[in-house]
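User: Can you help me understand a structure? I only have the sequence.
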Amino acid sequence: MSQRKMYSAFISSVYESLRDERSIVIDCLLDYSVFPVCMEHFTASVNRQFKDIEERIDESDFFVLILGAVYGSRDENGVSWTEREYKYAVECGKPIIAIFCDELVELRKKDVNELTEDEKCQLSFSNQIAFGRSVTETMTIQKIMAQFFTGYDFSSCVGWSRAFVLGEREIAEWREAHKAWKLDGEWYHVHLSADDDHYIRTGTIRISQQFDPEHYKKLTFDGLNYNIRYNAESKEIGENLIKRTHWRGVYEIDDEGAMFGVFTAKREFSGTFNEHKVDKGTRRGIHDFKIPVHDNVAVTCFEGEFHDEAPSPQIGVIYVFRTRQMRDDFLVQNFAEVLKNNQGGV
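Assistant: Let's start by predicting it. Here is the structure, written out as C-alpha coordinates:
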Protein backbone atom coordinates (compact mmCIF):
# COMPACT_ATOMS: atom_id res chain seq x y z
CA MET A 1 0.00 0.00 0.00
CA SER A 2 1.47 3.35 -1.05
CA GLN A 3 1.93 5.93 1.66
CA ARG A 4 0.88 9.54 1.46
CA LYS A 5 3.92 11.77 1.36
CA MET A 6 4.54 14.79 3.52
CA TYR A 7 6.73 17.72 2.51
CA SER A 8 8.60 20.37 4.46
CA ALA A 9 9.38 24.08 4.14
CA PHE A 10 12.10 26.02 5.94
CA ILE A 11 10.75 29.33 7.27
CA SER A 12 13.29 32.16 7.33
CA SER A 13 12.64 35.53 8.97
CA VAL A 14 13.38 37.58 12.04
CA TYR A 15 11.25 36.20 14.84
CA GLU A 16 9.94 38.80 17.29
CA SER A 17 8.57 41.40 14.85
CA LEU A 18 7.01 38.86 12.47
CA ARG A 19 5.32 36.43 14.86
CA ASP A 20 1.85 36.95 13.37
CA GLU A 21 3.03 36.60 9.78
CA ARG A 22 4.97 33.42 10.62
CA SER A 23 1.86 31.97 12.25
CA ILE A 24 -0.19 32.63 9.10
CA VAL A 25 2.48 31.02 6.91
CA ILE A 26 2.61 27.95 9.17
CA ASP A 27 -1.18 27.52 8.97
CA CYS A 28 -1.06 27.81 5.17
CA LEU A 29 1.74 25.25 4.88
CA LEU A 30 -0.15 22.74 6.98
CA ASP A 31 -3.20 23.16 4.75
CA TYR A 32 -1.07 21.77 1.89
CA SER A 33 0.48 18.95 3.98
CA VAL A 34 3.77 20.85 4.11
CA PHE A 35 5.51 20.63 7.48
CA PRO A 36 7.01 23.95 8.72
CA VAL A 37 10.67 23.84 9.75
CA CYS A 38 11.47 26.67 12.17
CA MET A 39 14.91 27.04 13.74
CA GLU A 40 13.42 28.20 17.05
CA HIS A 41 12.26 24.58 17.44
CA PHE A 42 15.85 23.33 17.28
CA THR A 43 18.94 23.94 19.36
CA ALA A 44 21.93 24.66 17.13
CA SER A 45 25.21 23.48 18.64
CA VAL A 46 27.70 26.21 19.49
CA ASN A 47 30.43 24.62 17.43
CA ARG A 48 28.38 23.90 14.30
CA GLN A 49 26.43 27.19 14.11
CA PHE A 50 25.36 27.79 10.47
CA LYS A 51 26.06 24.17 9.56
CA ASP A 52 22.96 23.16 11.53
CA ILE A 53 20.87 25.65 9.56
CA GLU A 54 22.29 24.39 6.25
CA GLU A 55 21.29 20.85 7.13
CA ARG A 56 17.70 21.91 7.90
CA ILE A 57 17.50 23.76 4.57
CA ASP A 58 19.00 20.76 2.74
CA GLU A 59 16.34 18.49 4.24
CA SER A 60 13.46 20.83 3.30
CA ASP A 61 11.55 20.75 0.02
CA PHE A 62 10.73 24.49 0.01
CA PHE A 63 12.12 27.73 1.42
CA VAL A 64 9.76 30.48 2.65
CA LEU A 65 11.30 33.91 3.20
CA ILE A 66 9.29 36.49 5.17
CA LEU A 67 10.69 40.03 5.18
CA GLY A 68 9.59 42.99 7.25
CA ALA A 69 11.39 46.24 8.04
CA VAL A 70 14.01 44.70 10.37
CA TYR A 71 17.27 43.31 8.96
CA GLY A 72 17.87 41.22 12.06
CA SER A 73 20.79 39.79 14.00
CA ARG A 74 24.03 39.41 12.07
CA ASP A 75 26.97 37.06 11.88
CA GLU A 76 30.60 37.98 12.43
CA ASN A 77 30.75 39.44 8.88
CA GLY A 78 27.78 41.75 9.39
CA VAL A 79 25.38 39.68 7.24
CA SER A 80 22.02 38.82 8.76
CA TRP A 81 21.22 35.18 9.40
CA THR A 82 18.10 35.60 7.28
CA GLU A 83 20.10 36.80 4.28
CA ARG A 84 22.60 33.96 4.72
CA GLU A 85 19.76 31.43 4.84
CA TYR A 86 18.19 32.88 1.70
CA LYS A 87 21.45 32.86 -0.27
CA TYR A 88 22.13 29.27 0.76
CA ALA A 89 18.63 28.23 -0.37
CA VAL A 90 19.25 29.92 -3.75
CA GLU A 91 22.59 28.13 -4.03
CA CYS A 92 20.85 24.81 -3.31
CA GLY A 93 18.17 25.47 -5.94
CA LYS A 94 15.28 25.27 -3.47
CA PRO A 95 11.83 26.46 -4.64
CA ILE A 96 11.41 29.80 -2.87
CA ILE A 97 8.39 31.81 -1.75
CA ALA A 98 9.44 35.36 -0.82
CA ILE A 99 6.85 37.44 1.03
CA PHE A 100 7.29 41.20 1.51
CA CYS A 101 5.18 42.23 4.51
CA ASP A 102 3.48 45.61 4.76
CA GLU A 103 6.27 47.01 6.97
CA LEU A 104 8.74 46.41 4.15
CA VAL A 105 6.33 47.79 1.56
CA GLU A 106 6.15 51.04 3.54
CA LEU A 107 9.91 51.08 4.07
CA ARG A 108 10.49 50.95 0.33
CA LYS A 109 8.43 54.14 -0.09
CA LYS A 110 10.68 56.20 2.20
CA ASP A 111 13.54 58.47 1.23
CA VAL A 112 16.74 56.47 1.63
CA ASN A 113 18.32 59.38 3.51
CA GLU A 114 15.72 58.96 6.26
CA LEU A 115 16.52 55.30 6.87
CA THR A 116 18.54 53.83 9.69
CA GLU A 117 21.56 51.68 8.91
CA ASP A 118 19.55 48.55 9.71
CA GLU A 119 16.73 49.64 7.40
CA LYS A 120 19.19 50.38 4.59
CA CYS A 121 20.60 46.86 4.92
CA GLN A 122 17.10 45.39 4.81
CA LEU A 123 16.21 47.46 1.76
CA SER A 124 19.41 46.39 -0.01
CA PHE A 125 18.67 42.76 0.81
CA SER A 126 15.08 42.90 -0.43
CA ASN A 127 16.15 44.62 -3.66
CA GLN A 128 18.13 41.47 -4.54
CA ILE A 129 14.90 39.45 -4.68
CA ALA A 130 13.14 40.13 -7.96
CA PHE A 131 10.37 37.56 -7.42
CA GLY A 132 9.18 38.75 -3.99
CA ARG A 133 5.42 39.13 -3.52
CA SER A 134 4.19 42.20 -1.61
CA VAL A 135 1.36 41.83 0.88
CA THR A 136 -1.61 44.16 0.24
CA GLU A 137 -5.25 44.28 1.30
CA THR A 138 -6.22 42.14 -1.68
CA MET A 139 -3.01 40.09 -1.95
CA THR A 140 -2.86 38.53 1.51
CA ILE A 141 -0.27 36.04 2.74
CA GLN A 142 -2.90 33.32 2.43
CA LYS A 143 -3.46 34.20 -1.23
CA ILE A 144 0.27 34.35 -2.00
CA MET A 145 0.73 30.88 -0.51
CA ALA A 146 -2.34 29.53 -2.31
CA GLN A 147 -1.14 30.82 -5.69
CA PHE A 148 2.17 29.06 -5.19
CA PHE A 149 0.90 25.68 -4.01
CA THR A 150 -2.35 25.33 -5.98
CA GLY A 151 -1.57 22.95 -8.80
CA TYR A 152 2.09 22.63 -7.74
CA ASP A 153 3.78 19.51 -9.13
CA PHE A 154 5.16 17.84 -6.01
CA SER A 155 6.73 15.00 -8.00
CA SER A 156 10.04 16.87 -8.08
CA CYS A 157 10.14 17.00 -4.26
CA VAL A 158 11.77 14.33 -2.12
CA GLY A 159 9.29 14.56 0.74
CA TRP A 160 8.97 11.85 3.35
CA SER A 161 6.58 9.08 4.31
CA ARG A 162 5.64 7.77 7.71
CA ALA A 163 8.69 5.94 9.06
CA PHE A 164 6.62 3.38 10.94
CA VAL A 165 5.12 1.68 7.89
CA LEU A 166 7.30 -1.19 9.13
CA GLY A 167 7.76 -1.90 12.82
CA GLU A 168 10.97 -0.98 14.57
CA ARG A 169 12.12 -4.60 14.58
CA GLU A 170 11.45 -4.98 10.85
CA ILE A 171 13.28 -1.73 10.06
CA ALA A 172 16.26 -2.82 12.17
CA GLU A 173 16.36 -6.19 10.39
CA TRP A 174 16.13 -4.51 6.98
CA ARG A 175 18.98 -2.11 7.82
CA GLU A 176 21.16 -4.95 9.05
CA ALA A 177 20.53 -6.82 5.81
CA HIS A 178 21.35 -3.71 3.73
CA LYS A 179 24.16 -2.05 5.70
CA ALA A 180 26.48 -2.14 2.68
CA TRP A 181 24.09 0.25 0.92
CA LYS A 182 24.23 2.86 3.72
CA LEU A 183 26.41 5.66 2.31
CA ASP A 184 25.19 8.87 3.93
CA GLY A 185 27.74 11.11 5.62
CA GLU A 186 31.08 12.73 4.88
CA TRP A 187 33.53 11.08 2.46
CA TYR A 188 36.97 12.01 1.09
CA HIS A 189 37.77 11.54 -2.59
CA VAL A 190 40.57 11.75 -5.12
CA HIS A 191 40.19 12.19 -8.89
CA LEU A 192 43.00 10.79 -11.08
CA SER A 193 43.51 10.55 -14.84
CA ALA A 194 44.89 7.46 -16.57
CA ASP A 195 46.26 9.66 -19.37
CA ASP A 196 47.78 12.48 -17.32
CA ASP A 197 50.05 11.66 -14.39
CA HIS A 198 50.04 15.34 -13.37
CA TYR A 199 46.27 15.49 -12.88
CA ILE A 200 44.97 15.03 -9.35
CA ARG A 201 42.08 16.61 -7.43
CA THR A 202 41.14 15.86 -3.85
CA GLY A 203 38.26 17.02 -1.68
CA THR A 204 35.13 16.03 0.18
CA ILE A 205 31.72 14.63 -0.68
CA ARG A 206 28.69 14.93 1.54
CA ILE A 207 26.27 12.14 0.65
CA SER A 208 22.63 12.49 1.73
CA GLN A 209 20.50 9.36 1.80
CA GLN A 210 17.16 8.55 3.40
CA PHE A 211 17.90 5.02 4.59
CA ASP A 212 14.64 3.09 4.48
CA PRO A 213 13.23 0.47 2.08
CA GLU A 214 11.38 3.04 -0.03
CA HIS A 215 14.03 5.74 -0.48
CA TYR A 216 17.54 4.33 0.03
CA LYS A 217 18.31 3.93 -3.68
CA LYS A 218 18.22 7.69 -4.33
CA LEU A 219 21.16 9.75 -3.06
CA THR A 220 22.41 13.32 -3.44
CA PHE A 221 26.08 14.29 -3.58
CA ASP A 222 27.55 17.65 -2.60
CA GLY A 223 31.25 17.70 -3.43
CA LEU A 224 34.29 19.96 -3.48
CA ASN A 225 37.43 19.42 -5.59
CA TYR A 226 40.71 21.19 -4.87
CA ASN A 227 44.08 21.53 -6.54
CA ILE A 228 46.77 20.00 -4.32
CA ARG A 229 50.36 20.58 -3.26
CA TYR A 230 52.34 17.53 -2.05
CA ASN A 231 55.14 17.70 0.54
CA ALA A 232 57.33 14.65 -0.15
CA GLU A 233 59.36 15.10 3.03
CA SER A 234 56.38 15.04 5.41
CA LYS A 235 54.16 13.05 3.01
CA GLU A 236 51.40 15.60 3.57
CA ILE A 237 48.84 16.46 0.91
CA GLY A 238 47.77 20.09 1.09
CA GLU A 239 44.69 21.49 -0.65
CA ASN A 240 44.47 24.92 -2.26
CA LEU A 241 41.14 26.07 -0.82
CA ILE A 242 40.97 28.99 -3.25
CA LYS A 243 41.26 26.91 -6.42
CA ARG A 244 38.22 24.72 -6.08
CA THR A 245 35.27 23.30 -7.97
CA HIS A 246 31.90 22.82 -6.26
CA TRP A 247 29.61 20.13 -7.67
CA ARG A 248 26.24 18.58 -6.90
CA GLY A 249 24.37 15.64 -8.34
CA VAL A 250 21.57 13.12 -7.90
CA TYR A 251 22.47 9.42 -7.99
CA GLU A 252 20.68 6.05 -8.14
CA ILE A 253 22.03 2.78 -6.75
CA ASP A 254 20.74 -0.65 -7.76
CA ASP A 255 20.60 -4.02 -6.01
CA GLU A 256 24.00 -4.97 -7.41
CA GLY A 257 25.71 -1.84 -6.05
CA ALA A 258 26.01 -0.02 -9.38
CA MET A 259 25.53 3.71 -8.81
CA PHE A 260 25.19 6.30 -11.57
CA GLY A 261 24.63 10.05 -11.40
CA VAL A 262 24.73 13.28 -13.36
CA PHE A 263 26.35 16.26 -11.68
CA THR A 264 26.66 19.99 -12.29
CA ALA A 265 30.01 21.54 -11.36
CA LYS A 266 30.91 25.17 -10.78
CA ARG A 267 34.59 25.94 -11.29
CA GLU A 268 35.40 28.95 -9.09
CA PHE A 269 38.70 30.01 -10.65
CA SER A 270 40.32 30.49 -14.05
CA GLY A 271 43.59 28.94 -15.17
CA THR A 272 45.18 26.58 -17.66
CA PHE A 273 44.31 22.94 -18.24
CA ASN A 274 46.19 20.69 -20.71
CA GLU A 275 47.80 23.88 -22.06
CA HIS A 276 44.36 25.42 -22.70
CA LYS A 277 42.97 28.43 -20.87
CA VAL A 278 39.90 27.46 -18.84
CA ASP A 279 37.66 30.15 -17.37
CA LYS A 280 35.61 29.71 -14.25
CA GLY A 281 32.04 28.66 -14.87
CA THR A 282 29.70 25.67 -14.87
CA ARG A 283 29.71 22.37 -16.67
CA ARG A 284 28.10 18.95 -16.37
CA GLY A 285 29.44 15.44 -16.10
CA ILE A 286 28.70 11.91 -14.99
CA HIS A 287 29.92 9.55 -12.28
CA ASP A 288 29.69 5.77 -12.55
CA PHE A 289 30.46 3.96 -9.25
CA LYS A 290 30.50 0.36 -8.08
CA ILE A 291 29.69 -0.23 -4.40
CA PRO A 292 30.92 -3.55 -2.89
CA VAL A 293 27.58 -4.74 -1.53
CA HIS A 294 27.71 -8.52 -1.93
CA ASP A 295 29.44 -9.28 1.40
CA ASN A 296 27.05 -6.85 3.15
CA VAL A 297 29.65 -5.16 5.34
CA ALA A 298 29.79 -1.45 6.09
CA VAL A 299 31.54 0.25 3.18
CA THR A 300 34.71 2.23 3.94
CA CYS A 301 35.78 2.88 0.35
CA PHE A 302 34.50 2.58 -3.21
CA GLU A 303 35.58 3.64 -6.68
CA GLY A 304 34.29 4.56 -10.07
CA GLU A 305 34.82 6.71 -13.15
CA PHE A 306 34.22 10.38 -13.89
CA HIS A 307 33.52 12.00 -17.23
CA ASP A 308 33.71 15.80 -17.35
CA GLU A 309 32.34 17.60 -20.38
CA ALA A 310 33.84 20.60 -22.20
CA PRO A 311 35.27 23.22 -21.83
CA SER A 312 37.77 21.12 -19.84
CA PRO A 313 36.91 17.50 -20.76
CA GLN A 314 38.55 14.88 -18.57
CA ILE A 315 38.03 11.17 -18.03
CA GLY A 316 39.47 9.24 -15.15
CA VAL A 317 38.95 7.30 -11.96
CA ILE A 318 37.63 8.49 -8.63
CA TYR A 319 38.36 6.78 -5.30
CA VAL A 320 36.22 7.58 -2.27
CA PHE A 321 37.10 6.91 1.40
CA ARG A 322 35.42 7.30 4.78
CA THR A 323 38.40 9.18 6.23
CA ARG A 324 40.97 11.59 4.87
CA GLN A 325 43.77 9.50 6.38
CA MET A 326 42.64 6.43 4.45
CA ARG A 327 42.63 8.44 1.23
CA ASP A 328 46.04 10.02 1.80
CA ASP A 329 47.65 6.69 2.80
CA PHE A 330 46.19 5.13 -0.35
CA LEU A 331 47.71 7.86 -2.53
CA VAL A 332 51.15 7.70 -0.90
CA GLN A 333 51.24 3.91 -1.29
CA ASN A 334 49.85 3.65 -4.83
CA PHE A 335 50.34 6.96 -6.66
CA ALA A 336 53.74 8.25 -5.57
CA GLU A 337 54.59 9.44 -9.08
CA VAL A 338 51.44 11.54 -9.37
CA LEU A 339 52.12 13.12 -5.99
CA LYS A 340 55.72 13.77 -6.95
CA ASN A 341 54.51 15.63 -10.05
CA ASN A 342 52.44 17.87 -7.81
CA GLN A 343 55.11 18.91 -5.29
CA GLY A 344 54.91 22.39 -6.77
CA GLY A 345 51.14 22.24 -7.20
CA VAL A 346 48.97 25.32 -7.17
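Now, to help you interpret it: The CA atoms of residues 27 and 106 lie 25 Å apart. Residues 41-48 have pLDDT under 50 and may be disordered. Let me know which part you'd like to focus on.
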